[in-house]
Every structure is written in structure tokens, then in C-alpha cells.
Amino acid sequence: MNSSELWARMGILFQECRTTSRTNLVTNTRACLMKMVIAPASTRTGKSPLALYGSWVREIDKEVLLHGRPVPARAVFNESSLRLTLGLTKTARVVQVVGVFFTAYDLTAAAQQSVEIKSARPITKEVMRQAGGWGAAWAGAKIGAAAGATVGIETGPGVIVTGLVGGIIGGSLGYWGADWVVDQME
Q1: Cα distances (angstroms) measured from residue 46 to each of 49, 56, 91
Q2: Are residues 52 and 106 both part of a single domain?
Q3: What Rg do the C-alpha atoms of the chain give, in angstroms?
Q4: Domain containing 41: what range?
């Protein structure tokens, strides 16, 4: 069966399995699952649908996530990790203060320009740039850090490093993206 035949068959089965009322949802879903997945697979393997489903449950995912052994505290928290965390916290505070300083400077310059030209446009644009930039940078950093940590877990180079890099990249893209959007408003 080629892919076009498979898609055609799935379309026919989907039309047959559409539910018209909420009361038939469970019955129709079970019937569709039987028609689309379990029945064709059981025909190929020669197993009954119940045996086939049971084998899927037993055989597909044999990953063990928890072994039941306690994790020692020093594996998560130790002297060097505390020093690193405190150092990163101090650095982040300095960077944040510098960012707030530049924001205040940019807003002051925009306010002076607004007074000079007797228009609210420069200060409005700068407020939008700053609010959008800080907000998008924060959101981008959160998303980037989560994505980076996910990549770090999967690939193994270190969740902290990939999370940090993802946060920096996401935050930068968020800030510059908001800046670009404000520039397009002219």
C-alpha cells in the first residue's frame, strides 16, 4: 500500500468514524481505533486485538525512570554549585541594574526629544520599545531556557549550560524582535 492509498483509506475511515453527537463519542472513538489501528495490525500479526494491545503495553516502552534509590544531596547541591549559583546571581543583578540604567537614559532622552519637538511620538515609541523589549526578552529567556534545558537533557552536554545558552539566545531574540516591531510602526 503506497502513501496515497493509505491517506485515501484514512480519509474514508475518518468519514465513517465522525461523531455526530456527544453521547456517541466514546463508542465511535473506540470503533475508529479498532478500525484504523488495531484491526489492521492484528490481521498482519495474527494476534487477537486484545493480545496485540497487551503486547504494545508490555513491549513498546521499557524505559525505567525511577529506580527507587535515594539521590544523595551532594549530587544536586555542593560547595562548588553554591559558589557558581551565587556568582551567577550577583552577575545577573549587575546586568539588570545596567539594563535599568540604560532604560532610564533612553526614556529621558526620548522625553527631552518629545518636549523639544512638542510631540508625544518619541516618548510613546520609546516606552513601547522598552516595555516590549523587556517583556519579550523575559518571555524569550524563559522559552529559550526551557528549550535549552530540554536539549541538554536529551543530548547530555549539561542542562545548565544549554539552558543558559538557550535563555541568552531567546532573551536576545525577544528583545531585538520587539525593537524591530516598534521600528516598523513608523
Answers
A1: 9, 14, 64
A2: no
A3: 28
A4: 3-56
Residue 116 lies in a domain: yes
CA 181 vs CA 58, 79, 129, 131: distances in Å: 52, 44, 8, 12
Which segments of the chain does DSSP mark as H helices, in order? 3-17, 25-33, 39-45, 49-59, 79-117, 121-155, 159-184
Tell me: do 116 and 179 sit in the same domain: yes
pTM, entire model: 0.50
Comparing 109-118, 152-161, 175-184, the range with the smallest average pLDDT is 152-161
- Where do we find the cell 465511535? 28
Distances (CA, A) of 128 to 105, 124, 146, 178: 15, 6, 26, 9
pLDDT in tens, 110-157: 999 999 999 998 898 889 888 888 888 888 888 888 888 887 777 666
Domain membership of residue 111 (yes or no) is yes
